[in-house]
Amino acid sequence: MAAIQRHRATRQRAAILDLLQEAESFLSAQQMHDALRAKGMKVGLTTVYRNLQLMTELEEVDHVRREDGESMYRRCDSGEHHHHLVCRACGYTVELANDQLETWAKALARKHRFSQVTHDLE
Amino acid sequence: MAAIQRHRATRQRAAILDLLQEAESFLSAQQMHDALRAKGMKVGLTTVYRNLQLMTELEEVDHVRREDGESMYRRCDSGEHHHHLVCRACGYTVELANDQLETWAKALARKHRFSQVTHDLE
DNA sequence: CACCTAGTTGCAAATGGTTTCCATTTGCGA
DNA sequence: TCGCAAATGGAAACCATTTGCAACTAGGTG
């Protein structure tokens, strides 16, 4: 949001980004924290949360909520608007770039007199 | 879950259901609690949560999560699978019964070799 | 109608994810 | 090398939701 913002390159931030880079599915903040500690890195849970929040704002990672309300994060390949297909069993995820849905959503919104439609689909 | 379960008709349960009946949009457990107290009714917050949980299991109410993770509940007209169109400003909601989406979702799932697809769309 | 008992209630305390406080550390431009 | 704002992290605060438990009650039974 901030017009000009300087972000430093810290060991912790790099570690979190690396972890997300390797991950093949969504991870929760706590899972990342555990994984980092397991690797022997000293990173505070608070720091993980703060960086994920920052990266989400910068749109470097995607953020979705599980059914139980826990936040899950994932580094996305494209910076564009898209959806995910998530396996409930193993968490395997497929990214979707779907114009059809967009078109459909807009038409639907018009029909019901809504505007500025955004949507979530998992 | 229990095969045979007897549910009593209590003052509190009726009040919660009434409130949902009148509501024109989603309500959080806390909002309901406040509303009931405002009406002069003595209902414990715990009771509100427990009844909402029960009603959700019995599929008498729908349950969705707001962006911030808070649970919102609404009594639905139809007991069938459907989606909602929610106004981000006022909370006004439209229920959708959409076969097209279902079909699309299934085709998409097949394409990516998923099965037993469920989805959320708001 | 009085009784029984499992469903129900509600306060307090516990949970669990996430955020805030604040003192200390650390990038990094000058 | 200096200086300082950004960043860190452990503890405490937050807040929605859940659980423990003793008291209460709807509603079927004798």
Strand order in the largest sheet of chain A: 1-3-2
Order of helices and strands of chain A: HEHHEEEEH
Structural class of chain A: alpha+beta
Q: What best-fitting shape of chain A do the alpha-carbon axes yield?
A: globular
The biggest sheet of chain A, with number of strands, parallel, antiparallel or mixed sense and barrel status, is: 3 strands, antiparallel
Please describe the structure with a list of short key phrases separated by commas or semicolons.
homodimer; 122 residues; alpha+beta; 3-stranded antiparallel sheet; two-stranded antiparallel sheet; 16% strand; DNA-binding
Task: Walk me through the structure.
Two copies of one chain form a homodimer. Chain A has 122 residues and is α+β, with helices and mostly antiparallel strands. The first copy, chain A, has helices at residues 11-22, 29-38, 45-57, 99-111; strands spanning 27-28, 61-65, 71-75, 83-86, 93-96. In chain A, the strands form two sheets. A three-stranded antiparallel beta sheet of chain A has the order 1-3-2. In chain A, strands 4-5 form a two-stranded antiparallel ribbon. The first copy, chain A, is globular, with a radius of gyration of 17 Å. The two termini of chain A are 27 Å apart. The A-B interface holds A 65, 69, 71, 85, 87-88, 94, 96, 98, 100-101, 104, 108-109, 112, 114, 116, 118-122 and B 65, 69, 71, 85, 87-88, 94, 96, 98, 100-101, 104, 108-109, 112, 114, 116, 118-122. Chain B binds a DNA duplex (30 and 30 nucleotides) through residues 5-10, 12-13, 28-30, 42-47, 49-51, 53, 69-71.
